[in-house]
Amino acid sequence: MRARGEPSVAASGEWRDEEGTRMPAGEAHAWRPGTNQTLCGLALSRSRLLRFHHVPWTDVFPESGGAAEEIRRVCPRCRAAAGGRSERGWSRSWRRDSPRP
Q: How would you write the pLDDT of the chain (101 residues) with one tens digit per residue?
């Protein structure tokens, strides 16, 4: 089970796996269930994005092997806002090692 604050996926399309489960396709955005917009600020209804509350945001990255089969593009702004994968690995929160006095 996912943590309550973990984002789910909103995508521009859908496909069905072998068991008939809806999976995201096309362009993927991070979305927190209970809100009407993505983490990058797109309105779900105006952008015509489909909600996939059962798919965690981390499953849209090709390295995860999860729901990434038909994902063509992952929104870079949502990736940054959710603290997702960067080219160098999972991004860590920023901290200053030796602050000025």
A: 455 578 999 999 999 988 999 999 999 999 998 899 999 999 998 999 999 999 999 888 877 777 788 899 999 999 988 875 444 444 556 677 777 76
**22-31 and 71-74 strand pairing:** parallel
User: What is the spatial distance between Cα 72 and Cα 98, in angstroms, rounded to a whole number?
Assistant: 41
**pTM of the model as a whole:** 0.76
The structure tokens 């779900």 sit at 44
Residue 62 Cα distances to 18, 57, 59, 85, 99, angstroms: 19, 12, 8, 10, 37
Dmax (CA) for the chain in angstroms is 60
What's the rounded Cα separation, in Å, for the pair 4 and 39? Answer: 15
CA 32 – CA 9 distance, rounded (Å): 8
Tell me how far apart the alpha carbons of residues 55 and 46 are, in angstroms, rounded to a whole number: 21
